[in-house]
Design goal:
By secondary structure, the protein is of the alpha/beta class. The protein has helices at 30-44, 62-78, 98-109, 123-137, 155-162, 185-188, 191-197, 209-223, 233-244, 248-265, 272-292, 296-310, 318-331, 339-351, 363-366, 378-389, 395-398, and strands at residues 52-55, 85-91, 139-146, 172-180, 200-203, 316-317, 355-361, 368-374. Strands 2-3-4-1-5 form a five-stranded parallel sheet, sandwiched between helices. It has a three-stranded antiparallel sheet with strand order 6-8-7. The chain is globular. It binds a DNA duplex (22 and 22 nucleotides) through helix 14, helix 15 and strand 8.
Length: 402
DNA sequence: ACTCCACAGGAATTGAGGGGTG
DNA sequence: CACCCCTCAATTCCTGTGGAGT
């Protein structure tokens, strides 16, 4: 018989540590906020907004700063009758083309009963629909494109800022705010887009350990009961996150998870040990998540590496991975891919941090190649693969470590 | 300084699969 | 229904490249 008790020895307000929690004020980002505010000033003046481009790694406050400032902007706009401000927020996370972005913007602006499908239309038709929706709204429209680096062609970034100049829009003043996790994204933009979109650029640097600790301690004060934190916990959380990504999100997640572990244990304090364990489970979750998203072919490529690892034959070059991959694919009843393609899967895997890759070059006779090695515990990879892909791991392979 | 290997990874193309319009 | 549009995995072809051996 399950019974639910309120177990409150640790958290008094655990929401404060969750990812979607919006703090009232943003810490440690004063300089960036000031710059950002300046860039938004034309909106209040009723002028054509400037296009703004924000870049910095995940969890350094880009999105939070945007939401924070836009809220204030809306409040300020209330005071001026002639100011009609709309903001559209779109996360381009699962979108990879301008076409998809345009469709999603249209759907964002339209009635829920009047949505359009994500394929089928000619590109220009979608842009026309988008212009029509924008005209209907009128006034100043700020379009926030979060994680904009996911898209691989920049048509829409070219179209939107110029729509007004090209006569596609007349009653509306559009402004684009692009948010990118990848500062090299800017370099991949075509020159014509670069100078329109990047009128204002604001760089968000990673937080350092001190800044993270300040952020954490403020949130911890609100989220946790007094005296549940061991002395080393906050410094450790911030150090882990600072070393890795400099992301506030990461450090908060770590603290939350550590607290969660402590709660499950029924103890009334969070220790350094909890933090280390939390770090571990988060890492494991990340890997599993990454592996689940792969296609069957990706799993097979990974599996080929795993099987080499079981024999202690890693790192292994792709030349040697291929034959094994091939037989495994055949056993699994799938058509094996061509080598070129399997290499793509391998490099996907290393991008996700599931494999590590070493560049080798043996010169004249040897040539250059990549050596791959598992970047996760072999058993973990094996377990996950068996779970999700129904691959029968031959006993011979599995016990070869012995 | 030059050469030459083995591969990485870019470019172009295809074909199946989502969907549209009239 | 015929015909068109976009996407994505996959294939084919090809150029680029780092550095040990000459």
């Amino acid at each position: 018989m399950p019974h639910f008790n309120r177990d409150n020895e640790i958290f008094c307000q655990e929401d404060v540590l969750r990812e979607d929690y919006q703090p009232e004020k943003l810490q440690e980002r004063d300089a960036e906020l000031e710059e950002y505010e300046g860039a938004l000033q034309p909106v209040i003046n009723g002028a054509q907004p400037r296009n703004i481009f924000l870049y910095g790694k995940t969890g350094v406050g880009k999105t939070a700063a945007t939401q924070y400032l836009l809220n204030h902007l809306h409040d300020a706009a209330e005071n001026y009758d002639d100011l009609d401000l709309t903001t559209v927020f779109l996360n381009c996370n699962n979108l990879n083309s301008s076409y998809q972005v345009a469709i999603n913007l249209v759907n964002e602006l339209r009635d829920p009963q009047d949505q359009i499908s994500t394929t089928g239309y000619p590109q220009q038709a979608v842009f026309d629909m988008l212009y029509e929706e924008l005209e209907n709204i009128g006034g100043t429209v700020l379009i926030v494109l979060d994680e904009i680096d996911n898209i691989n062609n920049d048509n829409i970034l070219y179209e939107l800022p110029r729509a007004r100049a090209n006569g596609n829009l007349s009653d509306v003043k559009p402004g684009i705010i692009g948010i990118s996790n990848d500062f090299t994204f800017r370099e991949t933009l075509s020159p014509k887009v670069k100078d329109t979109l990047c009128e204002e650029e604001i760089h968000f640097p990673p937080y350092n350990a001190d800044e993270l600790q300040n952020i954490l301690s403020e949130r911890a004060d609100a989220a946790l009961y007094d005296d549940v934190l061991d002395q080393d916990v906050l410094p450790l959380c911030s150090a882990f996150a600072a070393q890795d990504t400099g992301s506030a999100r990461q450090s908060l997640k770590l603290l939350y998870k550590a607290g969660d572990l402590a709660r499950k244990e029924g103890t009334d304090s969070i220790t350094e040990e909890h933090v280390r364990e939390a770090q571990h489970t988060i890492e494991r979750g990340r890997v599993e998540e990454g592996m689940k998203k792969l296609t069957t072919q990706g799993h097979l490529a990974l599996f080929a590496v795993v099987s080499h690892a079981l024999e202690g034959k890693t790192p292994v070059r792709s030349r040697d991975i291929y034959p094994r991959y091939k037989t495994m694919a055949e056993q699994a009843g799938t058509d094996p891919l061509v080598r070129r393609r399997m290499n793509d899967h391998l490099s996907d895997l290393s991008m996700q941090g599931i494999l590590t890759v070493y560049e080798r070059n043996e010169g004249r006779a040897g040539g250059s190649y990549y050596d791959y090695e598992l970047d996760v515990p072999t058993q973990l990879a094996l377990t996950v693969l068996e779970e999700i892909e129904r691959i029968d791991v031959p006993q011979s392979v599995r016990h070869q470590t012995a």
